[in-house]
Task: inverse folding
């Protein structure tokens, strides 16, 4: 037989050699496993880039998404005063992850980076990224958490320390979701709605309604140490004078019955466990006037979790770090709402990945 002009791949395993019958079975690719392994490194690549303000440095050089990138790694490293080969490896990793533009060794922002990763991007997630997974140590102890049924170091021991940076980080995204929700909820058509926002964080939902309705007023609740974030954001948006701040545990603070037109539970049920979530939903039902509406935003897991991967993993994030937190399903939440007496349930997705149930308290 003539020599093959090409180096041939190993042939020793082929059926003719090993004597097994031919089969078209191929081992599955290991790509999903490598994707998971790479997840950790990818996270830290992005965290490092944000910490070093790489995206802001590119934006400040006038990099415009869509315009060919204009700076090399050594040039940028010199400006930033960092190691050029190290920065180049970081920039290349960002390009691989789809978070930077790279053409012929020159780098620039792409649309994703400009919108989400610069600190003043239109939908900046720059401060959210590092805190989004919760305390990182808790992920290293996940197996132990699952064995024991609770994390060794739950954030419940220092809720303000955990939630303050988190709600600062999520504010921009949640305000966009809350503002866009008006297209489906039409709260802007109400004359002077009274809003109850429990576990409000930076109060994105209350702020969206107050900005859309000049005569709206709001009672805003969160725990001490976090409610200050709501005070600052409402002031920055020019609506603080129409807000009453009611610090404390939303399970026990005083809430006037039948006094509100809109109640909000924004991403609080997922950390409460079934009993806590049901209790807080019942509280909102009691607080609403007949025909008042509850907006319950969360990451709801679909009947098959694979259909809602983001929700399933966001639920895991809570389970990794809180005593009662679990992924909650859309069906379970609908049951809680109906058992509390709500009807006309609607599930909306005001922006990608952000879902909310809209549920109405019946007239009688
Ligand atoms: C994930 S954040 C959501 C913040 C905001 N509602 C949003 O949608 O962006 C959950 C909030 O609930 C607050 N929270 C948790 N337990 C609480 C409790 N028992 N009483 C009052 N607030 C609570 C936290 O401090 C935090 O601000």
Result:
């Amino acid at each position: 037989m003539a020599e093959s002009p090409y180096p041939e791949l190993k042939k020793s395993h082929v059926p003719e050699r090993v004597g097994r019958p031919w089969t078209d079975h191929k081992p599955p690719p290991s790509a999903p496993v490598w994707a998971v392994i790479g997840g950790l490194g990818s996270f830290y690549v992005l965290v490092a880039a944000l910490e070093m303000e790489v995206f802001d440095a590119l934006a400040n050089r006038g990099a415009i998404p869509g315009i060919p990138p204009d700076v090399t790694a050594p040039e940028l490293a010199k400006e930033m005063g960092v190691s050029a080969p190290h920065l180049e490896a970081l920039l290349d990793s960002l390009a691989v992850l789809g978070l930077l533009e790279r053409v012929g060794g020159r780098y620039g922002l792409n649309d994703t980076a400009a919108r989400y990763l610069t600190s003043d991007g239109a939908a900046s997630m720059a401060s959210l990224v590092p805190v989004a997974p919760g305390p990182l140590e808790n992920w290293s102890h996940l197996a132990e958490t699952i064995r024991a049924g609770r994390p060794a170091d739950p954030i419940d021991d220092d809720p303000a320390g955990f939630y303050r940076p988190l709600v600062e980080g999520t504010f921009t995204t949640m305000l966009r979701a809350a503002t866009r929700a008006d297209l489906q909820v039409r709260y802007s058509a109400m004359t002077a709605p009274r809003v109850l926002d429990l576990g409000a964080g930076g109060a994105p939902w209350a702020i969206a309604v107050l900005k859309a309705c000049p005569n709206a007023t709001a009672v805003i609740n969160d725990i001490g140490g976090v409610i200050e974030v709501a005070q600052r954001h409402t002031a920055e948006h020019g609506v603080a004078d129409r807000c009453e701040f009611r610090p404390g545990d939303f399970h026990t603070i005083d809430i006037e019955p039948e006094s509100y037109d809109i109640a909000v539970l924004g991403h609080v049920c997922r950390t409460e466990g079934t009993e806590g979530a049901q209790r807080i939903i019942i509280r909102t039902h009691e607080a609403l006037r007949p025909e008042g509406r509850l907006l319950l935003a969360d990451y709801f897991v679909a009947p098959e979790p694979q259909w809602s991967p983001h929700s399933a993993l966001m639920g895991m994030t809570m389970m990794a770090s809180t005593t009662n937190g679990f992924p909650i399903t859309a069906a379970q939440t609908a049951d809680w709402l109906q058992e509390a007496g709500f009807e006309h349930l609607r599930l909306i997705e005001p922006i990608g990945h952000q879902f909310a149930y809209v549920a109405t308290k019946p007239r009688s």
Q: What stands out?
A: Residues 159, 163, 167, 170, 174, 199-201, 204, 221-223, 226, 249-251, 266-268, 297 surround S-adenosylmethionine (CB under 6 Å). The chain has two domains: 31-119, 137-360.
